[in-house]
UniProtKB/TrEMBL annotation:
Name of the protein in question: Molybdenum transport system permease
Keywords per UniProt: Cell inner membrane, Cell membrane, Membrane, Molybdenum, Transmembrane, Transmembrane helix, Transport
Domain ABC transmembrane type-1: from-to ranges: 5-211
Topology of the protein relative to the lipid bilayer: Multi-pass membrane protein
Record GO terms (molecular function): molybdate ion transmembrane transporter activity
Lineage: Bacteria, Pseudomonadati, Pseudomonadota, Alphaproteobacteria, Hyphomicrobiales
Length: 221
């Protein structure tokens, strides 16, 4: 049980790091770009919101399989295959949780408007200065919301992690898969303990997100 908890928290932490590393620049581009096809990219990012997790996990498994072109390239570079490994879980989790990180950050960037950035430009601030010293500090509540939602969503994953990671103790067996195992083997008490912990965690995440959003509304009326 403890092993599954540790693995889940580790997966959520690593996934959140990559979500923010990839999601913040993507959210900035989606918020600022005027290209007509940006909404096509936005739709692709949001697709995991409506796709059944097993469908996404199935196609990720096919795409990353050792015999696929992408899988062969990854194995040639890294020396190992991604399916049924922790690294594979990270890849699947980043793709599946990306909209939960990108959308709040995009909304925060859009709420800033042009005035603060134009004022910084008149003071000879370059694009990087405007991004790091103006946009990011003003979008801090959105960044925090995106990180919290990305972390929490990763903790609660089931379909994607089961499809691409399987059920390997100590390697890919996360909390949601452990609960499923306990229910299948009629170990109700252990299932209750893990499930109640996840309910409590989810309540805390939703409450934190609502408080952050209220702060955002006050700051950007």
């Amino acid at each position: 049980m403890g092993e599954a908890v540790f693995l889940t928290l580790k997966l959520a932490a690593v996934t959140t790091f990559f979500l923010m590393l990839l999601g913040v620049p993507l959210a900035w581009w989606l918020a600022r770009s005027e290209r007509w096809w940006k909404e096509v990219i936005g739709t692709l990012v949001a697709l995991p919101l409506v796709l059944p997790p097993t469908v996404l996990g199935f196609y990720l498994l096919i795409a990353l399989a050792p015999q696929s072109p992408l899988g062969e390239a990854i194995k040639a570079i890294t020396g190992f295959s991604l399916p049924f490994t922790f690294a594979g879980l990270v890849v699947g989790s980043v793709i599946y949780s990306l909209p939960f990180a990108v959308q709040p950050v995009r909304n925060a960037f859009e709420a800033i408007g042009n005035d603060p950035l134009e004022a910084a430009a008149t003071l000879r601030a370059g694009p990087f200065d405007r991004f790091f010293n103006v946009a990011l500090p003003l979008a801090r509540p959105g960044l925090l919301t995106g990180a919290i939602l990305g972390f929490a969503h990763t903790v609660g994953e089931f379909g994607v992690v089961l499809m691409i990671g399987g059920n390997i103790p100590g390697e890919t067996k996360v909390l949601s898969v452990a609960i499923y195992d306990y229910v299948e083997t009629l170990q109700w008490q252990k299932a209750h303990i893990l499930a109640f912990g996840m309910v409590t965690f989810s309540f805390a995440v939703i409450l934190s997100t609502m408080l952050i959003e209220r702060h955002v509304r006050r700051r950007f009326p």
